[in-house]
Amino acid sequence: MIKFPEKEPYSPVEYTYEVETILHQGESKYQEILVIKNPYYGRMLILDGIVQLTERDEFFYHEMLTHVAMHAHPNPQRVVVIGGGDGGTVREVLRHETVKKVYFVELDEEVIRVSKKYFPTLSAGIQDPRVEVKIMNGADFLRKSPAPVDLIIVDSTDIIGFARSLFTEDFFASAQHILEPDGMLVTHSESLHFHLDLVVEIQKILKKIFPLVDLYSVPIATYPGNWWTFSIGSKKLDPREARRSFEIETRYYDDEIHKHAFLPRKLYEKLLSKQLAW
Amino acid sequence: MTRDFKVEKFHAEIISKSTLLKALSYLDKKKITTPLLLMDIEKIKDNVSLIGNNIKNSKVFYALKANPDIAIADLVNKQGIGFEISSEGELGILSSLNIKPEKIISSNPVKSINFLKMAADYGITFFSYDSANEIDKIKRFIPGANVYIRLSVPNEGSAWPLSNKFGVELDDAVRLISYAKHQGLNPVGATFHVGSQCTNLDNWNIAINKVKILGDMAKQRGIELSLLNIGGGYPINYINNAINIEIIEKNINKLIFEKFSEDLEIYIEPGRFVVGNAGVLVGSVIGKAKRYDEDWLYIDVGVFNGLMESLGGIRYTYIVENYKSKKKRWIITGPSCDSFDVIDKNVILPEPDIGGLILILSGGAYTISYASEFNGFLIPKTILI
After folding, report:
1. CB A164 to CB B46 under 8 A?
2. Does domain B11-40+276-384 have CATH number 1.10.510.40?
3. Which residue is closest to A160 within chain B, CA to CA?
4. Secondary structure (3-state) at B310
5. How many CB atoms lie within 10 A of CB B384?
6. The CATH number of B52-269 is which of 3.40.50.460, 3.20.20.10, 3.40.30.10, 3.40.50.300?
7. What digits encode the pLDDT tens for the residues A158-210?
8. Contact B25 A167 (CB under 8 A)
9. pLDDT band (50, 70, 90) for residue A4
10. ipTM of the predicted structure?
11. Is some CB atom of chain A closer than 8 A to the CB atom of B42?
């Protein structure tokens, strides 16, 4: 069987996957897009040589990226999803009945097209009438978007690639600007094991903009370093507290996970002050 | 605008992901005029926090010559460490930051009269020496100063050897210690330098053994050495992984404290280690040429305006913008008309476009401090990120 070796420059461990079939191999204006089938994980979406999701375990990432902020917010109606062209995050956002409008801002239209074909269970929500698809850079969207929103969810590719415009102080400032007073922004922020310096850096950039900044995590087998983090910036409300009852259908996330996903405060302080590093 | 750089696995050993994110984000921001030196503030702080942790009774003095940018000096000062300097110019920088004289030492064994006068006025009291003349000079301007003798030690395995210019052998050293004492100075200790970017643990072994012998010889003459200044030499990653600082320091600590008493005070003078890997030099590709079967790449930062250490054998790691995927072997040169201005004769890189940026990693130490405007080419501007 042929193998796919993942190429994340900052992963000291190289993850290699068996390839049962190559379903799609192409190059968009922005990146190489590969869809393979692996005997264990099923279909896998790979962008620029880095695994983005697998059919088998994508729910860990998509549920945790979405539902923590969705429950910390008392009434999320207008949501921006930046990136996540596969549609998984949009699907999770739409599980909430409060949601009236989703701006789905994806730079690479080709990822949406390929996902619709090979990942129909993820991309199904894109057709929902509440969803408005915007093919553009997320930073440009926030700068131009007129109406305030409740939540911004950033579902990007590797941070040092072209997605890095979604991790600057300017970007977070324009996010802060269009968020309602009780709004929040959540973004993935890579692995505590392999990218600790970057996790700390993103927390620091967020702290320049948001009064409340926090960090939670979920283990993901197919992301380098596994101990995957999400950084959350909030204008007013403590994201550790779930303000809405847990009523949606999920596989991993629930009200108890919400509490336990956040880093214990002592550990968080040690990491941010760099007393603990490895 | 998001620029397109080819980041590969071997880059990850040289530059941390957070430093790279900051550098690339800065370069995305606006129209860039090269050459530039981007210095990561957080990385400098991290580096300082790693030094001296594994050596008992140690104090750290940043060798300002590695990068004397005033904002960097200010940052380093705020991390709580001291400075090692050699000249009026360096003291001028520190005095403009109001740095206390107790935090400053001078380890250049031969100092100018003007510097000694200025140091005396400022209140600096720790100096190195390796000649009778220097003792006379120090005595004249700073009577009673604390002085440490510079020993000559092997520099094999260092990218930038220093020993053949400075240092004395044991017999001369002990004579000079006695002379210093006789002249009313306080011959408080000894120093050596294993060479900058030292990757050979044996250099420290040999040097510390030598200091031990010197200490015994001095004791016979009734002089107790209470200070050991181990100089600098801690290496950083340029094209591959250098020995880890923790291993180096644990080794030094073991060597010192199995030979000397517990209350021996240790000074460490890192320069490169504080700033080297916090810096990314940013140049632009200005030309490409095929000569016989060689591919030449001309960039706007070269031997004279930043990459002087390439002459001594330091080899850098590069990241290029606007690349074509096929890799080639390049000879990389600076912009000047001088044929010495060749940075590296063997670099495998994807082919960059003219006008594309080229990042030179671990460019924070001994780059700007050596740079001149020879031939009218600008010295890279330093920007803290």
Report:
1. no
2. no
3. B21
4. helix
5. 15
6. 3.20.20.10
7. 999 889 999 999 999 999 999 999 999 999 999 999 999 999 999 999 999 99
8. yes
9. very high
10. 0.92
11. yes
